[in-house]
Predict the 3D structure of the following.
Amino acid sequence: MQSNDTTETTATYLKMMEAVPTQVYLGAALGSIALSALLRLVGKKDAAVFVGQWPPTFILFALAFKVLYPSHENVLHDGHEAVQQASDLVGAGR
Protein backbone atom coordinates (compact mmCIF):
# COMPACT_ATOMS: atom_id res chain seq x y z
CA MET A 1 0.00 0.00 0.00
CA GLN A 2 2.84 2.37 0.86
CA SER A 3 4.55 1.96 -2.53
CA ASN A 4 1.29 2.74 -4.36
CA ASP A 5 0.98 6.02 -2.44
CA THR A 6 4.59 6.83 -3.27
CA THR A 7 4.03 6.09 -6.95
CA GLU A 8 0.97 8.34 -7.04
CA THR A 9 2.84 11.12 -5.22
CA THR A 10 5.75 10.86 -7.66
CA ALA A 11 3.40 10.95 -10.66
CA THR A 12 1.63 14.00 -9.25
CA TYR A 13 4.96 15.73 -8.61
CA LEU A 14 6.21 15.02 -12.13
CA LYS A 15 2.97 16.28 -13.72
CA MET A 16 3.26 19.48 -11.70
CA MET A 17 6.94 19.91 -12.61
CA GLU A 18 6.25 19.20 -16.30
CA ALA A 19 3.94 22.21 -16.44
CA VAL A 20 6.83 24.54 -15.55
CA PRO A 21 9.79 24.79 -17.95
CA THR A 22 13.26 24.36 -16.44
CA GLN A 23 14.20 27.85 -17.58
CA VAL A 24 11.60 29.29 -15.19
CA TYR A 25 13.39 27.75 -12.21
CA LEU A 26 16.78 28.97 -13.41
CA GLY A 27 15.33 32.43 -14.05
CA ALA A 28 13.82 32.46 -10.56
CA ALA A 29 17.22 31.54 -9.11
CA LEU A 30 18.95 34.37 -10.98
CA GLY A 31 16.14 36.77 -10.08
CA SER A 32 16.39 35.95 -6.40
CA ILE A 33 20.16 36.49 -6.50
CA ALA A 34 19.59 39.92 -8.05
CA LEU A 35 16.83 40.73 -5.56
CA SER A 36 19.06 39.67 -2.68
CA ALA A 37 21.84 41.95 -3.92
CA LEU A 38 19.39 44.81 -4.32
CA LEU A 39 18.00 44.32 -0.82
CA ARG A 40 21.55 44.29 0.56
CA LEU A 41 22.36 47.54 -1.25
CA VAL A 42 19.33 49.30 0.24
CA GLY A 43 20.27 48.13 3.73
CA LYS A 44 17.77 45.31 4.27
CA LYS A 45 20.38 42.78 5.41
CA ASP A 46 18.00 40.23 6.97
CA ALA A 47 15.70 40.25 3.96
CA ALA A 48 18.72 39.93 1.65
CA VAL A 49 19.94 36.84 3.51
CA PHE A 50 16.44 35.33 3.44
CA VAL A 51 15.99 35.87 -0.30
CA GLY A 52 19.59 34.82 -0.92
CA GLN A 53 18.74 31.34 0.35
CA TRP A 54 16.17 30.75 -2.41
CA PRO A 55 18.43 30.05 -5.45
CA PRO A 56 19.58 26.58 -4.35
CA THR A 57 15.96 25.56 -3.86
CA PHE A 58 14.97 26.68 -7.35
CA ILE A 59 18.00 24.97 -8.89
CA LEU A 60 17.24 21.77 -6.98
CA PHE A 61 13.67 21.80 -8.32
CA ALA A 62 15.00 21.95 -11.88
CA LEU A 63 17.64 19.33 -11.18
CA ALA A 64 15.18 16.98 -9.48
CA PHE A 65 12.87 17.20 -12.48
CA LYS A 66 15.70 16.43 -14.89
CA VAL A 67 16.82 13.45 -12.79
CA LEU A 68 13.35 12.03 -12.17
CA TYR A 69 11.96 12.69 -15.63
CA PRO A 70 14.81 12.63 -18.16
CA SER A 71 14.20 14.08 -21.59
CA HIS A 72 13.69 11.95 -24.65
CA GLU A 73 16.53 13.61 -26.50
CA ASN A 74 19.14 11.53 -28.26
CA VAL A 75 22.11 12.75 -26.23
CA LEU A 76 24.68 10.60 -27.99
CA HIS A 77 23.62 11.83 -31.44
CA ASP A 78 23.44 15.45 -30.28
CA GLY A 79 26.89 15.15 -28.69
CA HIS A 80 28.43 13.78 -31.88
CA GLU A 81 26.75 16.53 -33.87
CA ALA A 82 28.12 19.21 -31.52
CA VAL A 83 31.64 17.77 -31.77
CA GLN A 84 31.36 17.71 -35.58
CA GLN A 85 30.24 21.35 -35.66
CA ALA A 86 33.08 22.37 -33.36
CA SER A 87 35.57 20.45 -35.51
CA ASP A 88 34.24 22.18 -38.62
CA LEU A 89 34.65 25.58 -36.96
CA VAL A 90 38.21 24.84 -35.86
CA GLY A 91 39.09 23.41 -39.27
CA ALA A 92 37.55 26.39 -41.07
CA GLY A 93 39.94 28.77 -39.30
CA ARG A 94 43.00 27.14 -40.85
